[in-house]
Amino acid sequence: MLKTVIAGVDGLAGGQDAIALARSLAPDAEIVLACAYPYDSTVSRFALLGFGTALREQTKHEVRRERDAAGLPDARIELVADTSPSHALHELAEREHADLVVTGSSKRGKVGRALLGDVSRAVLHGSPCPVAVAPKGFKGGQVRVVGAAFNDSPEAREALRFAADLARHHGARLCVRSAAQDPLAATGATTYVVDYDKLREDVRRETQHVLDEAVAALEPGLRVEAKAVVGSTAGVLDALCAGVDVVVCGSREWGAMRRVVLGSTSDRLIHHAPCPVVVVPRTAVAHDGGTADVAQLAGTRD
Q1: Residue 237 reports pLDDT greater than 70
Q2: How far apart, in whole angstroms, are the C-alpha atoms of residue 230 and residue 102?
Q3: By the 8 A CB rule, do 31 and 15 touch?
Q4: Helix 154-170 crosses helix 196-216 at what angle (to 10 degrees)?
Q5: Which of 92, 120, 130 is nearest to 301 (CA)?
C-alpha cells in the first residue's frame, strides 16, 4: 500500500516521533529521512558557497545521528537547501511520488497531544499527499485498530478508503464513526418537539444508512465497526480517538492539485487526538494534465 514514506526530521524530538510513526504505519515501505537546511544560493551563489557546503555537511551529520538512533541504517537521507522546510517537503514529496509525509508535533503542549508548530501546520496545509502527524513522545507500536471520521463528503469517503487500505495492510480492525447532529441543537432549545426521542432516532438512522452505504462500497474482507452517534462532532471524535491506534480524516479540496487544506474537523483532530492522525487530501475527482512539473531540488542523497 505505502511504498515511499517521507519523515521530516530536524534534529529535535519531533523528528524521532515522526520516524517512529513512519515505521509503525508503513513497516515495509522505503522511509526517506528528509531535512531542509536554511540556505539560499540565489542570494550570493559564490560568496556563500563554502557556508552552504559546511551547513549541508553539518545537517547530514545530524540526520545520520537521528537515523542511527532510530535503528534505520538503510533509510535514505535527503537534504534540501530551502529556507522553507514545509516547501522543501512538498517539493520532495512530489518528486519522489511519496505516498505519505510524516511530521512530528510541536515540542510544546501536553504530553500525548499534538500541538502544531509553524512547520507542521505549513506541511499540512500544502502537501500533495496524505500527511500523518505524530503526537509528542510517540514511540511507535503495532496498528491493531484504525479509526476513520466520516461525514458524507467526498473528502471523508477518500479518507475512509485510505483507512480501509491501512487496516487491511495491518490486519487491523476498522472503526468508523459519524456524528449525527442532535435535532434539539439544530432547531434550538425553545422549539417544541412532539416526540424528541423519535426525531433523534430518525436522525441517527438516516446518518447510519449513509454510513452503511459508504462502508458497503469498500472491498470485502475487513473487520468493520461503523456507527452513527448523535452528538457533537468533537465529542464523537474524542471517544473514537480514545480507542484506536491511528485515526484518519479527510481534508478540503484546494485547486487542481487537490492538496491538503485543513477543515474544522481535521484541524481539531490534529490538535486534540491522543493518537496519531492522518489527513488525506481529496483525490476523488480526476484532473487533466497528469503530474505537475517539479523544479529540481538542491539536495544530496546518502
Answers
A1: yes
A2: 32
A3: no
A4: 60
A5: 92
Distance CA(21)–CA(12), nearest Å, equals 15
Which residue type occupies 178?
A: S
Q: How far is CA 151 from CA 127, 243, 301, in A?
A: 22, 19, 42
**Amino acid present at 112:** G
Q: Distance between CA atoms of 155 and 250, rounded to whole angstroms?
A: 5
**66-70, 102-106, 262-266 — most confident range:** 66-70
- pLDDT tens for residues 239-267? 999 999 999 998 865 544 456 666 677 77
Per the listing, cell 461525514 goes with 151
- State the amino acid at position 215 in one-letter form: V
> Cell triple for residue 117?
508548530
Residues 6+ apart with CB under 8 A from 68: none
